[in-house]
Design a protein that fits this description.
The protein is an alpha+beta fold. Helix 15 (378-406) runs parallel beside helix 18 (474-499) and helix 27 (759-793) crosses helix 28. The radius of gyration is 38 Å and the shape is elongated. It starts with 10 loop residues before the first helix and ends with a helix.
Length: 890
C-alpha cells in the first residue's frame, strides 16, 4: 500500500484554489482541504480523493468568491497607489515610531523565549563563544603575519637580494656574498639605494663603568642608506650621517634605557665582544612588532673590515649576510631581476658564473616564503584560517540543530501568531532577532575570552599579536562581519522552518518532526560537525606521531646529555685552558671543540669539492664541519673505513661520510689516502664516517666532511653523566666563568637545540590539539542538547518501556544507536579527507611515519569515548526516571 504522506492533491487544482481563494482565508482553508484529502484517501481511494479535492477547488469559481477576489485585488491596487503618493509629514513620522515599537516587541519576545529555555540558551551561547573567540584569535594571528613589514612607506619598491647555487640541484639562500651591496649600487641605474645588513650575536660591555655590566644582544653591521630604505625613525641623531664613520652605533630607545638608565645615550660608548669600542651617534624609535628585522644595535659598516676581514669575498655565502635595495619609482621588477644575471658574468669565472645566480625578492614575500626560511608558511596560515571557519560552522550547526529540534515545541505559539495576523516575514525576523540576541551575548563573552587568551597565545607562539579595535580598522570590520554572518547562518534556516508552519496544523498539534526540519536534516548537521572534528583529530594524531618520530628516531649520532657551550675566543691558548678546567669536573665524560654539532638548524658552510686531482670540482656541494679528534667519540659517530683524524690546529686530514663517497663514485677503502680540496684547503682522506642526519628529517642525508681547524672552533661540547644535572650544570657554569670572565655564559642541551628544526611544527601541533578539543567539545554540546530534547520527547515512551520491563541498558541503547551510526558515517567522510591531507603533510619529510589503521582507529575511538560520556550521562538520567512520573507527564 502506498504511503499517503507521499501522495499530493492535483497540482493544477492547488494553483487554481490559490488564485481564486481570498488571501486571508487561504492558509486556513488549504490546511483543512489537505487534511480532508488525507482522510478521503483512506475512505474512498486516491482517484476519488483527487476528484473530490478538484471539485472543492472549483467551488471558488462561484460569483460570491469571484467578486470577493476582485475586491481584494482592487484594494491591493489602491494601497499601491497610496504608497506611491507623497506622504504627509505626520505619516512619515509615524513610520519610525511603528518600526521602533515592532523592534521592541521582537526584543521583548526574544528575551522571554530565551529566559524560558535557559539550557538551550546556555548551550548555544557556550558553543558560539568558543567558535567566535577562536575565529577572532586566528584572524588576529593571520592578520599579524600577513602585515609584516608593510608599514614601510616604500615597501612596494624594497627588495632583498637572494642567491641560487646551481649544482646537482638548485639551492636557494636569502643570503649573499658580502661585496654584492656595492655591486648593486655601482652597476645598476635602476637601484636608488642599496645597503648590506650583516647580523651577529654580540656580547656588550662597558669598560668605563665600574658595575661590570654585560649584555647579550644582536648586532648588525649596516650602511647609512639602510635607514633611507626602511622606515625606522630616529628620535635622536641624523640618519644620513649617524653611521658614516667607523666605530659608530645606533641603538633603540629600549636599549638606551637598558644600557644607560635614562641618561642621554648620544656620545656614550660600549664594547662589542670585548674587542671593539663603539660610540652611540643615534637613537631609534623602538622597532614595530610586525617586522622581521629585530636587531636593536646597528654599527657602522666600515668597522667590519676590522672585526671580520675574511668576509670580503665573492666565494662565500654566510647565513648572516643580507642585502636590501630600493628600486627607483617606475622600475619593472621582472626586468631588473633579469638584468642581475650580469653579476655572475662580471664577478665570477666562466665555471662559477653558471653556479652563482642572484635574484630580487619582494620585501612582502620574506616573512612567509619557506624556500628562504620564512618565519611562517602560507600553507600554515591557510590551514589555521580553515580551522577557524570549521569551528564557526560547527558552532552554527549546533545552533541550527537545537533550534529545529525545539521548533515542534513552539508550533502552538507560531499557530496563534499566524491566526492573529503575523506574516511569514515577521515570524522570520522575529526568530532572527532571537538569534541576534543570543549571538550578541555570545559575542560579548567571545571578545572577553579573546582578550584573556591573547597573552597565552602570544607566549605560546612567540608572537606580538594585539587586539586593538580602535587602531586596526581590519579588526572591527572582521568582527562586525563575523557577527552578521553567524547570526544569519544560525538563524536563517530555523527561521524559515518556523515561519513556514501551517497555522491550523500547528494549533491542532498535528505537525511532525519531518515538517520542522526533520531528524534527517539534524543527522546531516551532526555528521558535518563530527566529520570536521574527526578530520582535525586525525591530523593532530599524525602530526603528534611524526613529532615523536623526529624526537626518538636514530639520527646516527648521540644527542642525549650533551651540553653545548660557546667559545668566545678561538685561540689554542683559550681552548687549552677550557679543556683543562672542564677535565677536572668528574661529571664531564668527554670534551670536544667544534664549529657545529653533527646536525644543527644553523646553516653550515656548503662548499665545493675537488677529488684526487680531477680536473674540475664535483657537481655536488659538501657540508664543511670542523672538530678536534674527540668529535667522533663525543657524538658516537662510527667509521666504516680508515681511521680518525690526528690532532692538528690546521687542516691536514679529512673524514667524509658514506653519501659523499657514493657521490664520488668510489668505494670507502678506495678513498683512503687520496688527496681532496674542500673549501680551498687541501688534505688527505683518512677515514669514512657512517652516514648520520646533518639536518632535519625533511631533508635527505647530505655529503659531509669533517676536518681539524682550531681557529674555527666556536663551540665546545661536553658529554656529561646525566646524574644530578643541576649540580653538573652549576659546576660547568663556574668552570666556564673562571676561564671566560669577560663574557656572558649560556648553554644548551643538544637534543633541545635540535628541536628548533621542528619549532613551527610543534607550535602548530599545540594549536591543533587545542582546536580539535574545542571542535569536539562544541559537537558534544550539540549532542547533549539533542539527547536532552529527545529524552523530553520520549518521556511517555520511556515510561511505557519501563513498565513493560525494559532495562536501563535497552533504554540507553534507544538513544545511543542513532548517534553511533552518525559518528560512523562522519568517520567514513573524515578518514579519506584526513588521509589525503596527512599524505601531503608527510610528503614534506624525507623520513617519516607510515599512515596506518592504528591512527584512524585511535581517532574514531577517542570520538566515540567522548560521545559515549556525553550521550550516556543524559541517557542514563532519562532511563532512571520513575515510569509513573513519566506516564503522568503527558
Amino acid at each position: 500500500m502506498k504511503n499517503k504522506n507521499h501522495i499530493s492533491p492535483p497540482r493544477w487544482a492547488d494553483k487554481l484554489f490559490k488564485l481564486l481563494c481570498p488571501p486571508e482565508l487561504f492558509e486556513e482553508l488549504q490546511g483543512d482541504l489537505h487534511e480532508q484529502f488525507e482522510l478521503d484517501i483512506d475512505r474512498v481511494g486516491v482517484k476519488a480523493a483527487k476528484k473530490i479535492y478538484t471539485l472543492e477547488a472549483l467551488k471558488f469559481t462561484k460569483p460570491y468568491f469571484l467578486k470577493k477576489r476582485i475586491l481584494t485585488l482592487k484594494r491591493a491596487k489602491s494601497q499601491q497607489l497610496k504608497a506611491n503618493t507623497p506622504k504627509s509629514p505626520k505619516a512619515e513620522n509615524r513610520q519610525p515610531i511603528a518600526l521602533t515599537i515592532m523592534l521592541q516587541n521582537y526584543l521583548t519576545t526574544a528575551r522571554r523565549t530565551l529566559s524560558r529555555h535557559k539550557s538551550y540558551t546556555v548551550i548555544n551561547v557556550l558553543g558560539l563563544v568558543l567558535g567566535m573567540s577562536c575565529g577572532i584569535l586566528i584572524f588576529s594571528l593571520v592578520n599579524y603575519h600577513v602585515g609584516f613589514d608593510k608599514f614601510h612607506t616604500k615597501a612596494d619598491r624594497i627588495y632583498r637580494v637572494t642567491s641560487e647555487l646551481h649544482n646537482e640541484t638548485v639551492i636557494k639562500y636569502g643570503n649573499v656574498p658580502q661585496p654584492i651591496g656595492a655591486a648593486m649600487r655601482d652597476d645598476y641605474s635602476f637601484v636608488e639605494k642599496a645597503s648590506m645588513l650583516i647580523s651577529f650575536g654580540g656580547s656588550i660591555s662597558f669598560p668605563s663603568r665600574k658595575d661590570n655590566a654585560k649584555f647579550s644582544d644582536g648586532v648588525s653591521y649596516t650602511e647609512p642608506d639602510f635607514f633611507g630604505i626602511m622606515d625606522f625613525p630616529f628620535v635622536a641623531g641624523n640618519p644620513k650621517t649617524a653611521l658614516s664613520q667607523p666605530n659608530t652605533a645606533v641603538i633603540t630607545e629600549e636599549l638606551a634605557e637598558k644600557y644607560f638608565h635614562g641618561e642621554n645615550a648620544i656620545g656614550k660608548s660600549f664594547r662589542l665582544d670585548n674587542k671593539t669600542d663603539f660610540t652611540v651617534t643615534g637613537i631609534l624609535k623602538n622597532l614595530p612588532e610586525n617586522t622581521d628585522i629585530r636587531q636593536q644595535i646597528y654599527v657602522s659598516y666600515p668597522t667590519i673590515s676590522q672585526t671580520t676581514p675574511w668576509l670580503n669575498t665573492w666565494g662565500g655565502i654566510m647565513s648572516v649576510t643580507q642585502a636590501y635595495v630600493l628600486l627607483k619609482p617606475g622600475t619593472d621588477a621582472n626586468k631588473a631581476d633579469k638584468a642581475m644575471a650580469s653579476i655572475s658574468t662580471k664577478y665570477y669565472n666562466a665555471k662559477d658564473a653558471k653556479t652563482f645566480k642572484f635574484h630580487l625578492q619582494p620585501l612582502s614575500d620574506i616573512h612567509m616564503n619557506q624556500e628562504f626560511d620564512g618565519a611562517v608558511a602560507k600553507s600554515q596560515l591557510i590551514a589555521l584560517s580553515l580551522i577557524a571557519v570549521f569551528l564557526i560552522i560547527t558552532a552554527c550547526v549546533n545552533f541550527i540543530n537545537l533550534a529545529t529540534a525545539q521548533a515542534l515545541g513552539r508550533s502552538t505559539e507560531i499557530g496563534v501568531r499566524k491566526v492573529m495576523g503575523s506574516r511569514k516575514g515577521q515570524l522570520f525576523w522575529q526568530f532572527i532577532t532571537e538569534t541576534a540576541l543570543i549571538t550578541l551575548i555570545a559575542f560579548i563573552f567571545a571578545i572577553g575570552l579573546s582578550y584573556l587568551a591573547l597573552p597565552y597565545m602570544n607566549e605560546l607562539l612567540s608572537t606580538r599579536v594585539t587586539l586593538d579595535l580602535l587602531k586596526d580598522i581590519s579588526q572591527p570590520i572582521f568582527i562586525t562581519c563575523l557577527l552578521l554572518v553567524v547570526t544569519f547562518i544560525s538563524g536563517s534556516y530555523p527561521g524559515l522552518v518556523l515561519a513556514g508552519f501551517q497555522p491550523i496544523m500547528a494549533l491542532k498539534g498535528k505537525l511532525t518532526q519531518n515538517q520542522v526540519g526533520g531528524f534527517s536534516i539534524r543527522k546531516g548537521l551532526v555528521v558535518t560537525q563530527f566529520a570536521i572534528s574527526q578530520t582535525l583529530l586525525i591530523a593532530t594524531i599524525v602530526v603528534t606521531s611524526q613529532m615523536q618520530f623526529n624526537s626518538e628516531a636514530d639520527m646516527g649520532f648521540k644527542k642525549d646529555a650533551i651540553v653545548i657551550l660557546p667559545v668566545p675566543e678561538t685561540t689554542t691558548t683559550k681552548q687549552s685552558a677550557m679543556r683543562a678546567r672542564f677535565s677536572q669536573l668528574p661529571e664531564v665524560e668527554k670534551i670536544t671543540f667544534l664549529n657545529v654539532p653533527p646536525a644543527s638548524p644553523q646553516n653550515n658552510l656548503d662548499t665545493g669539492l675537488r677529488y684526487a686531482g680531477r680536473p674540475e670540482d664535483e657537481k655536488f656541494n659538501i657540508f664543511y664541519k670542523t672538530g678536534d679528534p674527540e668529535y667522533l667519540s663525543t657524538f658516537g659517530l662510527k667509521l666504516v673505513a680508515g681511521r680518525n683524524l690526528a690532532q692538528s690546529d690546521t687542516t691536514r686530514e679529512y673524514l667524509l661520510n658514506e653519501t659523499a663517497i657514493k657521490k664520488l663514485g668510489i668505494e670507502p677503502e678506495e678513498a683512503i689516502g687520496k688527496n681532496v680540496n674542500i673549501n680551498h684547503r687541501s688534505g688527505t682522506i683518512v677515514g669514512v664516517m657512517k652516514d648520520f642526519h646533518n639536518a632535519s628529517f625533511r631533508q635527505k642525508i647530505d655529503p659531509v666532511c669533517l676536518t681539524t681547524r682550531a681557529d674555527n672552533y666556536s663551540q665546545c661540547a661536553l658529554k656529561v653523566s646525566g646524574r644530578n644535572l643541576p649540580v653538573t650544570l652549576a659546576s660547568i657554569e663556574k668552570a666556564w666563568n673562571e676561564t671566560n670572565p669577560e663574557y656572558i655564559y649560556n648553554y644548551q642541551f643538544l637534543d633541545e637545540h635540535l628541536q628548533h628544526f621542528y619549532e613551527t611544527d610543534q607550535l602548530m601541533l599545540q594549536l591543533m590539539w587545542l582546536f580539535a578539543a574545542i571542535a569536539i567539545f562544541i559537537g558534544c554540546l550539540g549532542l547533549y542538547g539533542l539527547i536532552s530534547f529527545m529524552a523530553a520527547q520520549k518521556t511517555k515512551e520511556i515510561g511505557v518501556r519501563k513498565t513493560l520491563g525494559a532495562g536501563v541498558g535497552s533504554i540507553v541503547w534507544l538513544f545511543g544507536k542513532q548517534f553511533a551510526q552518525l559518528l560512523v558515517i562522519a568517520f567514513v567522510i573524515a578518514a579519506p579527507i584526513g588521509w589525503w591531507l596527512m599524505n601531503k603533510y608527510l610528503a614534506d619529510f624525507q623520513y617519516h611515519i607510515d599512515l596506518n589503521a592504528t591512527i584512524f582507529i585511535a581517532a574514531i575511538g577517542i570520538t566515540f569515548l567522548i560521545a559515549i560520556v556525553t550521550v550516556g550521562y543524559r541517557s542514563v538520567k532519562a532511563a532512571l526516571m520513575n515510569p509513573v512520573k513519566a506516564l503522568r507527564s503527558e
